[in-house]
């Protein structure tokens, strides 16, 4: 009888431990697992990117691809073993499909910016915006064979002065409702402030703004006439490497990186 009683106590104790484990251990659902894999927070990624002393730079190029400067930029990136993110214009992707494929084949991150880049048409209504965006996404899928990740950059930025504020607010909310993050920047090269901006001005703009930004999302352009952007790029990469920056793209963005961008108002700025 004593042995039977002891056995019952052991069974009850083990059952209690089991209940404690079940109700205190987070469940890993399929959705959670997908989120973990998508944002790249497995293995050593958290340890590397959760160090707030690290310096991280995202080179981003808008409005391409162009038949001349995008290839030059790609060459510089390859020579320096750096990856970048390209927010493309759909019509230019259709006009330069081979360049778009070259970006993809060389591990660059390709994301939608706009199909037409016509502010008047895009921002006339939220429906017009999404029709335009979907066409750009289709161009990327058709030419590269890969659907872009759920990020976009609104022409002029998410708080531009071109769109009706109410339309812009609706667009931003609908993007998030569809699971798409909209991306701005916190470092501007200023290469689009005039038709031609000097190489030294572009370099100095980036250097000065990155000085106080250990986490820098840098806005540049790879359009046809941005020759000085191309000229400034090798110096920019060299300088940032010397300052201890690591270059990243929006491919396999970690949860910490995404969270940092949200907190800084780079992703989903309100």
Automatic annotation (TrEMBL):
GO terms for biological process: carbohydrate metabolic process. It holds the Pfam family Polysacc_deac_1. The keyword Transmembrane helix applies. One of its GO terms (molecular function) is hydrolase activity, acting on carbon-nitrogen (but not peptide) bonds. It comes from the Bacteria. Keywords: Membrane, Transmembrane, Transmembrane helix. Residues 55-248 form the NodB homology domain. The chain crosses the membrane at residues 12-29. InterPro entries: Glyco_hydro/deAcase_b/a-brl, NODB_dom, Polysacc_deacetylase_ArnD. The keyword ATP-binding does not apply. This is Polysaccharide deacetylase. It comes from Clostridium tetanomorphum. The lineage of its organism: Bacteria, Bacillati, Bacillota, Clostridia, Eubacteriales.
């Amino acid at each position: 009888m004593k042995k039977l009683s002891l056995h019952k106590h052991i069974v009850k104790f083990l059952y209690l431990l089991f209940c404690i484990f079940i109700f205190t251990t987070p469940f890993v659902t399929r959705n959670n697992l997908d989120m973990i894999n998508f944002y790249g927070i497995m293995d050593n990624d958290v340890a590397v990117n959760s160090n707030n002393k690290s310096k991280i730079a995202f080179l981003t190029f808008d409005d391409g691809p162009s038949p001349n400067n995008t290839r030059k930029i790609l060459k510089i990136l390859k020579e320096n073993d750096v990856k970048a993110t390209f927010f493309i214009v759909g019509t230019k992707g259709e006009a330069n499909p081979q360049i778009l494929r070259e970006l993809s084949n060389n591990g660059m991150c390709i994301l939608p910016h706009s199909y037409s880049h016509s502010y008047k048409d895009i921002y006339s209504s939220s429906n017009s915006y999404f029709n335009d965006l979907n066409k750009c996404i289709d161009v990327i899928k058709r030419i590269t064979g890969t659907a872009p990740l759920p990020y976009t950059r609104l022409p002029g930025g998410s708080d531009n002065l071109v769109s009706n504020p109410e339309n812009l607010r609706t667009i931003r909310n609908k993007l998030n409702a569809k699971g798409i993050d909209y991306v701005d920047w916190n470092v501007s090269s200023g290469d689009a402030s005039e038709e031609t901006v000097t190489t030294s001005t572009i370099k100095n703009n980036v250097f000065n703004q990155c000085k106080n930004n250990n986490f820098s999302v840098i806005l540049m352009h790879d359009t046809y006439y941005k020759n000085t952007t191309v000229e400034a790029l090798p110096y920019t990469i060299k300088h940032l490497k010397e300052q201890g920056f690591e270059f990243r793209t929006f491919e396999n963005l970690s949860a910490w990186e995404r969270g940092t961008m949200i907190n800084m108002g780079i992703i989903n700025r309100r």
